[in-house]
Design a protein that fits this description.
Layout: H1 3-19, H2 25-35, H3 40-55, H4 57-67, H5 74-90, H6 94-103, H7 107-122, H8 124-129, H9 136-139, H10 144-154, H11 156-166, E1 172-176, E2 196-199, H12 205-209, E3 213-215, H13 221-227, E4 234-237, H14 244-252, E5 258-263, H15 269-278, E6 284-288, E7 303-309, H16 324-327, H17 330-348, E8 351-361, H18 370-379, E9 383-391, H19 393-396, E10 401-408
Parallel strand pairs: 4-5, 4-7, 5-6, 7-8
Antiparallel strand pairs: 1-2, 1-3, 8-10, 9-10
Helix pairs in contact: 1-2, 1-3, 1-5, 2-3, 3-5, 4-5, 5-6, 5-7, 6-7, 10-11
């Protein structure tokens, strides 16, 4: 079977797996590229198709509704999404997009797939012209409820700008690690953000393996800068895996003092330890702890500073987590609030008098950000809210993030 046919079969298999809820988009490409033994160029096309279909899922389903009336099973719909994405968005040659997508299907649906895709090639101009008549959330493939929520909080123009941001492929950034013994080889430092560099083209793996750089978005720095760890302090990173923010803390501490990095999932600890070791961090100790439970007694009033990068809705990073917009439901945000509050409560017991906590999310939702922090402070007279910051993609041109500094009297 020619390798070029494998790409569409691999994409179809990946989207089937995703549709069953078993995988995140981030894991699909590599797994199916290996399974189908794809070359590097074919892997890149597989990535473009999988991410493109998920990113434009709602718009593709609109096209399907205009080209085919009646019900479709999941296999046929996924194949049509793959084909229409190539024809109408990726602009792959019609013969390749149609023929090879048809070949990826089972015999009993190939006729249907062929007919719909050929109809799309004939109606391409009309289909594309009528996109402008759709609502912003249909054009930009976001759920209605999410657009309405952002419009309420940020206004219609900013909500549309946020959806447009999410539709663009995420850029990669590298952070230079000053704890290594090598000078930085990268050029074009990000303006206004010392130590961060945009990466164009292949990731420089030798620099990563030697711990010279770490792939990390600049938005991750805000909560660590607000925490302001100092050399010699005892610091906790409570939700540390895979270790990007813990590494920033260790740099600020100049590798002096004690950094305890914990995670609730024991399976994530080996990767956390590997990352911190590779980045030449010697002040860190790694431990498993679920912060929904009270901390061990020896940690009570033990830390000068605590970073809580809590589980959240991820609405500030939907550009990177392209499938999260389809996984997230309106009730999920409300369900996160008691989890986040419980983590904050259990961590507070571990703070020394005069110590500080930074509560952090990658969310844009006030309920799990400033509203939660204000309610927590109101319920705990021994703490004060010192500062808070909301980073939004449409204003700051970076991943979304929130952080709040709380100090214990």
């Amino acid at each position: 079977m020619p390798a070029k046919h494998n790409i569409r079969r691999a994409a179809h298999a990946a989207l089937h797996s995703w549709g069953n809820g078993h995988d995140y988009a981030e894991t699909l490409v590599e797994r199916h590229a290996q399974r189908y033994q794809l070359s590097s160029p074919d892997r890149n096309l597989l990535h473009a198709i999988i991410f493109g279909v998920l990113r434009n899922r709602r718009l593709l389903d609109h096209f399907i509704s205009k080209l085919r009336q009646g019900k479709l099973d999941h296999d046929a719909r996924d194949l049509l999404r793959i084909g229409l994405f190539q024809i109408l968005i990726l602009n792959i040659a019609d013969h390749a997009a149609v023929n090879e997508t048809v070949e990826a299907g089972k015999a009993n649906i190939r006729g249907l797939i062929n007919a719909v895709l050929r109809r799309a090639t004939g109606q391409r101009g009309q289909l594309l012209e009528k996109i402008a008549e759709l609502s912003p959330q249909e054009q930009l493939s976001h759920p209605d409820w999410l657009f309405k929520r952002w419009r309420k909080h940020y206004g219609a123009d900013n909500a549309i700008a946020l959806m447009q941001w999410n539709q663009e492929p995420a850029e990669n950034y590298a952070r230079y690690n000053p704890l290594c013994n090598e000078p930085c080889e990268l050029e074009n430092e990000l303006e206004g953000v010392p130590g961060f560099y945009p990466i164009e083209g292949p990731i420089p793996m030798p620099l990563i393996r030697r711990g010279v750089i770490y792939i990390q978005d600049p938005a991750t720095r805000h909560c660590v800068e607000m925490l302001a760890p100092q050399p010699g302090e005892t610091v906790l990173d409570a939700c540390a895996a895979p270790g990007g923010k813990a590494a920033l803390i260790a740099v600020a501490m100049e590798n002096k003092g004690l950094l305890i990095a914990t995670d609730s999932n024991e399976k994530r600890l080996p990767r956390l330890e590997e990352n911190l070791t590779r980045l030449h961090i010697t002040c860190a100790k790694i431990s498993q702890h679920d912060w929904l439970q009270p901390a061990p007694p020896e940690w009570h009033e033990f830390f000068d500073a605590i970073l809580l990068d809590v589980p959240c809705s991820n609405t500030g990073v939907l550009r990177r987590r392209i499938d999260a917009r389809w996984r997230l439901l309106p009730n999920d945000i409300e369900a996160l609030l008691p989890i986040q509050t419980s983590i904050l409560t259990n961590a507070l017991a571990c703070l020394k008098p005069g110590g500080r906590i930074v509560y952090s999310t990658c969310s844009l939702e006030p309920e799990e950000n400033i509203d939660l922090v204000k309610a927590f402070v109101a319920a705990h007279p021994e703490v004060k809210l010192i500062a808070h910051k909301q980073i939004t993609p449409f204003k700051d041109q970076s991943d979304g993030a929130f952080c709040a500094l709380i100090r214990k009297d």
